[in-house]
Specification:
heterodimer, A: 251 residues, alpha/beta, Rossmann fold, B: 2 domains, 9 helices, binds adenosine-5'-triphosphate, binds magnesium ion
């Protein structure tokens, strides 16, 4: 079943075209990796899917479970089951992590016609997740990402993902800046979400992540287009040979 | 003031007529103050400390002096939170009850029954310029109030709550005086909570005099959470002896006009004050705080954080003066004023004022006025949180860092709920 279907997507920021005809289909059960040099448009694609303001879609369509994603606001996309893991998670001092987690979960439940989760059950659930992410309970009571290290911010993104159990997770460089122990914890988290009814898109620069979370498909994004797709061996080839040959072949 | 200075507006008759022949202040002090207020009238925009705050609306009223017949109406909401609090009840400025069974080392005396020494201490600060007109008015008029004395070496674990129910009788006004005296090494928490009753117009002009002996520690809170139409003018004088620590939390959400002035005189080495404040004006509210910290001795420190969140046509005013006297070396003074404008009609005036006459001083100050961070809003929305909820979370978050300064965890939780409720949101229970 198609979860995400992107056809000929063009988008610009101001006058600058960034995405120039992206085609990508993610079916339930699949893990896709998107790689590509800096500035090729990977984060832009993620943010367009997330519904951030400031991008103009000039051509193309995006369907999420058969519905026009572009009709939905950012929060509607989220409660419909799309989760964006940020390359640079935002620091929000003053808003406790636990508040964000609880509001986010209850917003999703409300969209499904469910009541707020009972506080006791919520705390039990979140404490278990915190433990699996090898985090300390104290993180729950600190401001969202406020003063977190790079690795702590990324763990926090995965913590949110595991709580919200999205149908489609788009993880933008969640592995960047992680030491090997943290990478294992984050990869385990991603693998736990993996399932027949879910899709995962990993944006990454490193094959290292892909040896823990094996992708079904690997795509190379360059200058706003997917210039090559393949299976996990493509990532190994990239790691061994670099981008140059692919980029030359594309231009 | 020079002779050619323009003539000041006269003291409104309804205030002048209510001036008593004698009051609680020692007679010579009372009559001097009476003369000052008669001569000065109310402060006006021409007075330096009142440039942003107009009392014209007040002077145009005709309010009647509160008589003492009013009775307390509701159990104070804070008593449900601080169940062991020692509650002192005032209704329209009249002392109604003093708690019984006081802990050892604590003495509470009604101002009416105070000794000459207690009165002298309670009325020690003298008015010197028309900026101090309301102090003079209070000294000339106040008959009601309380003297709180904490003996040396006494550590009070139960908070003292002064609950002020104002406006039980509509269109009334009152003058109150509070004296808080801490002996050496004493520790106490005093929470002043003001309730504007029944949406009535009323005005209370109050003065607090805090004197802290060596190494004593006071948490002093001023909470204005309920009522839309009351006016409060409130001046607090604090004098700190060696190693004394004063911690103030000033949280103003309610009222038509709230003007607070906090004067801290740090007189000896090792003393420190923390001044934290949060004002949230909306509607046509004017919420104003002026603070003045004087570092009069070397090796003293101060730390001040004020935040304003102004919505609708609300107006927030913060002026923070720090004066470091000559020869007061090795001073560290920090001040920060952060402000959030939520509407185009709202207004925030903020001004630091540093006057430094010594050279070995670490002084930093900053003021920002901004709007909600769109990145943070988007991040929250990307987690499924609605725009309205996300906005609420960010505003409460902005306020939270000040609320967290409240001394008791139960109080922090309760205040968070009050602020959240005020923003029309539901609280996120844990
Ligand atoms: N707000 C913006 N205004 C103008 N240009 C932008 C803006 N954001 C991104 N860009 C440009 O769009 C292009 C794509 O950026 P994007 O962040 O999507 O790249 P990326 O593939 O995620 O790169 P990286 O691997 O470094 O994260 C870059 O040239 C970048 O400079
Ligand atoms: Mg990127």
């Amino acid at each position: 079943m198609k979860l995400l279907d992107i056809k000929n997507l063009h988008a610009k920021i101001g006058d600058k075209p960034i995405l120039r005809g992206i085609n990508l289909t993610v079916n339930a059960g699949e893990v896709h990796a998107i790689m590509g040099p800096n500035g090729s448009g990977k984060s832009t694609l993620c943010q367009v899917l997330g519904g951030r303001e400031g991008y103009e879609i000039t051509e193309g369509t995006i369907e999420f479970e058969g519905k026009n994603l572009l009709d939905l606001s950012t929060e509607e996309r989220a409660v419909a089951g799309l989760l964006l893991g940020f390359q640079h998670p935002v620091e929000i001092p003053g808003v406790k992590n636990i508040y964000l987690l609880k509001e986010a979960l209850n917003a999703q439940r409300a969209a499904q016609g469910l009541d707020d989760m009972d506080t006791f059950a919520f705390m039990k659930l979140i404490r278990e997740l915190v433990k699996t992410m090898d985090m300390d309970d104290a993180f729950l009571h600190r401001g969202v990402n406020a003063g977190f290290s790079g690795g702590e911010k990324k763990r926090n993104e995965i913590l949110q993902m595991l709580l919200l159990q999205p149908k489609l997770a788009l993880l933008d460089e969640t592995d960047s800046g992680l030491d090997i122990d943290a990478l294992k914890v984050v990869s385990d988290g991603i693998n736990r979400l993996r399932g027949a009814d879910r899709g995962i898109v990993l944006v990454t620069h490193y094959q290292r992540l892909l040896s823990y979370v094996e992708p079904d498909f690997v795509h190379i994004l360059y200058k706003g287009q997917i210039i090559k797709s393949g299976d996990k061996s493509l990532a190994l080839q990239l790691e061994a040979e670099g981008y140059q040959d692919f980029l030359e072949a594309a231009s | 003031m020079s002779r050619i200075a323009e003539k000041r507006a006269e003291l409104p008759a309804w205030i002048a007529d209510a001036l008593p022949a004698t009051a609680a202040a020692p007679n010579d002090i009372q009559s001097a103050a009476r003369e000052q207020i008669t001569q000065w009238g109310l402060p006006s925009l021409r007075d330096e400390e009142w440039r942003w705050t107009n009392l014209r609306n007040l002077s145009r009223q005709t309010l009647v002096p509160s008589a003492g017949s009013a009775v307390a109406e509701v159990p104070h909401p804070i008593s449900a939170v601080l169940t062991d609090a020692l509650v002192i009840e005032f209704v329209d400025g009249q002392l109604k009850t003093l708690p019984a069974d006081l802990p050892t080392g604590l003495t509470l005396t009604s101002l009416e029954h105070a000794s000459p020494e207690q009165r002298a201490a309670a009325f020690a600060p003298a008015a010197t310029t028309p900026n101090d007109a309301l102090l003079a008015l209070n000294t000339a008029s106040a008959q009601q109030g309380v003297v709180i004395e904490v003996a040396a070496n006494t550590v009070l674990t139960r908070p003292i709550v002064l609950q002020w129910q104002d406006g039980v009788v509509p269109e009334s006004f009152s003058q109150t005086r509070v004296s808080i005296q801490l002996g050496a090494h004493a520790q106490a928490t005093v929470i002043e909570s003001v309730l504007g009753m029944n949406q009535n117009l009323c005005w209370r002009n109050t003065v607090s005099v805090v004197t802290q002996a060596a190494n004593s520690q006071l948490h002093h809170l001023s909470l204005g959470l309920d009522g839309d139409h009351h006016l409060l003018t409130d001046r607090t004088f604090v004098t700190l002896a060696r190693d004394a620590r004063y911690h103030s939390l000033n949280l103003q959400l309610a009222g038509q006009l709230i003007r607070r002035e906090i004067d801290v005189n740090i007189t000896d080495t090792g003393a420190h004050c923390d001044l934290f404040g949060l004002m949230m004006p909306r509607g046509k509210q004017v919420l104003d705080t002026h603070t003045r910290i004087i570092h009069n001795a070397p090796h003293t420190t101060s730390n001040e954080h004020y935040r304003t969140i102004a919505d609708e046509a609300g107006r927030g005013i913060f002026k923070g003066r720090i004066l470091v006297a000559q020869d007061a070396q090795k001073i560290a003074a920090f001040q920060d004023s952060r402000n959030l404008l939520l509407s185009d009609q709202a207004e925030i005036d903020t001004k630091p004022e540093l006057e430094i006459y010594a050279d070995d001083v670490k002084c930093s100050h900053g003021a920002t006025i901004g709007r909600l961070d769109p990145e943070a809003l988007y991040y929250l929305q990307s987690r499924g949180i609605s725009f309205a909820k996300a906005r609420g979370l960010l505003i409460v978050g902005f306020a939270q860092e000040i609320i967290d300064e409240a001394p008791l965890p139960a109080l922090v939780d309760w205040l968070t709920k009050q602020v959240t409720r005020r923003l029309g949101g539901t609280t996120v229970a844990e």
